[in-house]
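The instructor's notes for this session suggest beginning with a concrete chain rather than abstract definitions. Hand out the sequence below and ask the class to guess, before any prediction is shown, which regions might be ordered.
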Amino acid sequence: MTGVLEALRRSFDSDCLLEGNPETLAEEGCGVGLTDMPIPRLVIDLDRPGSPLGPNDRRCDFLFVGKCPGCGGSFVVPIEIKGGRADPGDFVPQLQAGACVAERYIPRKARVRFLPVLVAHAMKKGDRVNAKRDRGKRATGRRKGAGSDTVRFRSRRARVARIKCGDRLKAAFDVVRPIAA
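After discussion, reveal the predicted structure:
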């Protein structure tokens, strides 16, 4: 596990790494708590200077990488935080950009559980209901409507977990199961 974190730490400019163990990530007046997430962990702020993405590239706000208790690997979680209404046409490409960064820098042999997460103030009631209904289902791309809110990582599709501002990141894992990649 620490090998993945160390590989990432060496790959990124220190300006975009959030050192220590932040308890909250916030953007646009909206935040998500990390208090229940495992340590050691690394949070990469893809909006900061030193990010591997160009200034005009789409990007998610954060890339969270942490120890995965019980799976012998790492959690990899691209996180997009929206202070207002969330449109899949905006947040899915941003989360996909975070997935691409993770694929580029995380060693291919590393065991990973991947889950893209949207944190938003304004969320249609149906979005939260649908996420709860689909809890535990694997995002295989075969169900009706699949693909509109999924992100590809290592040739697999993962459904975007949607949680409200102020929730803990751990709540996303209760809504959608991460994929093994």
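Then share the key points. The mean pLDDT is 81. The longest helix spans residues 88-105.
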